[in-house]
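Course assignment 3, question 2. Fill in each field.
Student: A.L.
Task: Predict the tertiary structure for the chain below.
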Amino acid sequence: MKKLIMIPLLMLTFLSMAACSNPDTEPLNPEQPEQPENPNDGNDPDDNPDTPTPGGNGRYLVLFASRSGNTERMANEIREKLDCDILEVEPTEAYDNDYNAMLERSQEELAAIRQGNYPPVKTSIESFDNYDIVFVGYPIWYGSMATPMQTFLHSHASKLVGKRIALFATSGSSGISTSVNEARNLCPDATLIERTLLLTSSSLSQMATRVSSWLEEIGANREEPEVASLKMKISVADRTISATMEDNAAGRDFLSRLPLEVTLNDFNNTTEKIFYPEPALMLEGVTRGCAPVPGDITIYVPWGNVAIFCKKWSHSNDLIKIGHIDGDGISALTVGGDIKVKFEKQ
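Answer field:
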């Protein structure tokens, strides 16, 4: 009789234990993708994978890939503190909600990347020209950068030339160094900010303070910088003319060197007036290609010289426009021979 009574009691105990067990509370393998907190089927019709959500501060862009939601929380924390643009990098095919299937796929994708085959993503950006810093965030999968972000950086490497990239990541407990090397290999011509930010399962609760400290360390802040004037004046003989420089790296570099006194050498029968800046002007991230008209201030890339055009000329992919002389001021330079000029800020 006692045995018959014990059987229902044992069954009740077993069911109670099963009900209290939650696989999401068990320690995660730090090398594996985490379980998603809020699975998403990836079919939100309102998503536009090419357009960042804008913020008030257009100097920064936060890019992130996230599965468990931890990296997304981190990205939103950065966005909130900087009031900047943000965009999620999403795979073309959403990941399966089944955890084991997700693990299998992530391993296959990492192996494919090692062979040079990158899994497709549906996110792309036309230009990063307006951003001072691009924040790149991702979870760490099996020690590596999550595959969607690897694909994105690989496909956008040419657009990130000269850009400053700040890396942040989440993981169970593994480090960030392998993914930093991956980012360096994926974007060899970008500038990786040395200071990175990694939050593990033991430090996620410190997210707000850790993000604030990190942003301060790398010099990122919410305030827009004071916009410097793009105007300059040019003194030639007894005449002073003005010019407006382009808002690009080369134009700003030129302005930073003023005042500057040089001799403009006549070139190609008064088609151009040229000189060679020392050191050469910065060209990172500057769009090439120009069909110069009279008054255009350009750089001829193969030689590194500044060329001010006095006459119209055909399009050349080796020319970069960095400014234009205002009004009819170019007439002051349209003379034969070499001339001395002085460039000054206006």
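Instructor remarks: Confidence is low (pLDDT under 50) at residues 1-31, 38-46. The chain has two domains: 57-217, 231-345.
Grade: pending
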